[in-house]
Design goal:
Length: 349
C-alpha cells in the first residue's frame, strides 16, 4: 500500500513537471514578443532559484524569433542581458559555484541571440558589453571574459574581428594576476580570471586568419604571456594545471598565429631564458613550453635550433629531478622535426 502511494506520488509529480514544461514552451512560443518581453524582463527580480527557468523560457522565445522581430527588439533585449549578466556582481559575488551556474544560463541565453546576429548587428552589442565590463564592479571582468571565451568558441573568425578591443584589458589581466600583482583580494577569483583570459586568447589565436596579430598586438601580449611561466598564483597544483591545460595551449597557438620568423625568435628566446629560472618548477614548465613550440611550428622550428640547443644541453646537465625526463623530451622533439633536425640533436647526446 505504501509502495502504491509512493508510485502514485511519483507519477503525479512527473505529470506536473511535464505540464509545467509544456506551459513554459507555450508561453515562450505563442506570445508575441511585444507582450512577452516586457513581461519577462520585469520578472528578473525573481529569487535566484527561478533565474534558470526564466532564462530557459527567454532562450526558447529568442530561438523562434524572426530576424525582423529580433532587430526591432534588440535594444530591449540588450538592456535585459546587461542586467542579467550583473547577477554575479550584484547578487552573488562570494559564491563562485552559484554565480557560475546562474551566469552560465544567462550566457547560453544571450548566445542564442548572438548566433542570430550579423556582423553589423553584433557590433553595437559587443561594444556595449565592453563598456559595461569596465564600469562599476571588478566582478564584471569575470563575467565578461567568460562570455568572451564562449563567444570566441561559437563565433570563431567573426569574433576575431572584434578582438582588438580585448588586447589591452587582457594584457592588463596577465600582468595584474601575476604572483607579484593583484586584481581581486580573493585568490580563487584571480586564478579564475587568469584562466578565462588565457582560454579566450587561445581561441582568438586559433581562429585568427593573419589579420589580428600584427606587430603591435604581438608585442603587447608576448612578454605578459611568457611571464606566466613563473606565475605560481594559487599554489603548486593550481600552477601545474594552469600551465598544462591553459598556458601551453594558449602560447602554442600564439606561436602559430605569429607566422613571423623574427617574432618566433623573440618568443623562443624569452622562453629559453625561463629555463634558467631559479625555481625548478618554472624551468620544467619552460621545457614543456619549448616542446609545445617545436610541436606547433614543426619544420619552422629548425631556424630556432642554433640558440635553443645550448639551453637544452644546459638543462640536461642539471641535477634537478624534474629533468630526469629530459631524454624523453628530446625524443619527442626529434619526432616532430625533419631528418636534419634529428641529426643535429644526435650530436649533442
Amino acid at each position: 500500500m505504501v509502495e502504491t502511494s509512493s508510485s502514485s506520488s511519483s507519477s503525479s509529480y512527473s505529470q506536473l513537471c511535464t505540464r509545467l514544461a509544456a506551459l513554459r514552451s507555450t508561453l515562450a512560443t505563442k506570445l508575441p514578443s511585444r507582450v512577452f518581453l516586457p513581461t519577462l524582463t520585469k520578472s528578473f527580480v525573481f529569487p535566484q532559484d527561478q533565474l534558470g527557468v526564466l532564462m530557459s523560457i527567454m532562450k526558447e522565445h529568442i530561438s523562434q524569433m524572426q530576424m525582423e522581430q529580433l532587430s526591432f527588439h534588440q535594444s530591449e533585449l540588450t538592456t535585459f542581458f546587461l542586467t542579467a549578466l550583473d547577477f554575479r556582481a550584484k547578487h552573488c559575488p562570494d559564491d563562485l559555484q552559484k554565480a557560475s551556474e546562474v551566469e552560465g544560463s544567462v550566457i547560453e541565453c544571450l548566445l542564442t541571440m548572438v548566433m542570430k546576429l550579423s556582423e553589423f548587428t553584433f557590433r553595437p552589442l559587443f561594444f556595449k558589453l565592453c563598456d559595461w565590463s569596465k564600469a562599476d564592479s571588478a566582478e564584471r571582468q569575470l563575467t565578461f571574459f567568460r562570455l568572451c571565451d564562449v563567444m570566441a568558441s561559437r563565433l570563431k573568425r567573426l569574433f576575431v574581428l572584434f578582438a582588438t578591443q580585448l588586447v589591452k584589458p587582457l594584457a592588463a589581466i596577465l600582468r595584474q594576476t601575476s604572483s607579484s600583482g593583484i586584481f581581486f583580494f580573493d585568490l580563487k577569483k584571480n586564478c579564475l580570471l587568469l584562466q578565462l583570459g588565457l582560454n579566450c586568447l587561445q581561441k582568438i589565436f586559433l581562429y585568427d586568419t593573419k589579420c589580428f596579430l600584427n606587430q603591435e598586438r604581438a608585442d603587447a601580449l608576448l612578454s605578459p604571456l611568457v611571464e606566466q611561466l613563473e606565475n605560481q598564483l594559487g599554489g603548486e597544483q593550481v600552477y601545474q594545471q594552469r600551465v598544462t591545460q591553459h598556458l601551453l595551449p594558449c602560447l602554442g597557438q600564439f606561436s602559430v598565429a605569429l607566422a613571423d620568423d623574427s617574432l618566433w625568435k623573440t618568443l623562443n628566446y624569452e622562453v629559453l631564458l625561463k629555463t634558467r629560472h631559479g625555481d625548478s618548477k618554472v624551468r620544467f614548465s619552460s621545457l614543456l613550453m619549448l616542446m609545445e613550440l617545436a610541436f606547433r611550428l614543426k619544420e619552422n622550428y629548425v631556424v630556432l635550433l642554433p640558440e635553443t640547443i645550448p639551453f637544452l644541453a644546459e638543462l640536461m646537465e642539471g641535477e634537478c629531478m624534474c629533468f630526469e625526463a629530459s631524454n624523453r623530451t628530446q625524443v619527442q622533439v626529434k619526432g616532430i622535426l625533419n631528418s636534419k633536425l634529428q641529426s643535429t640533436f644526435s650530436k649533442i647526446k
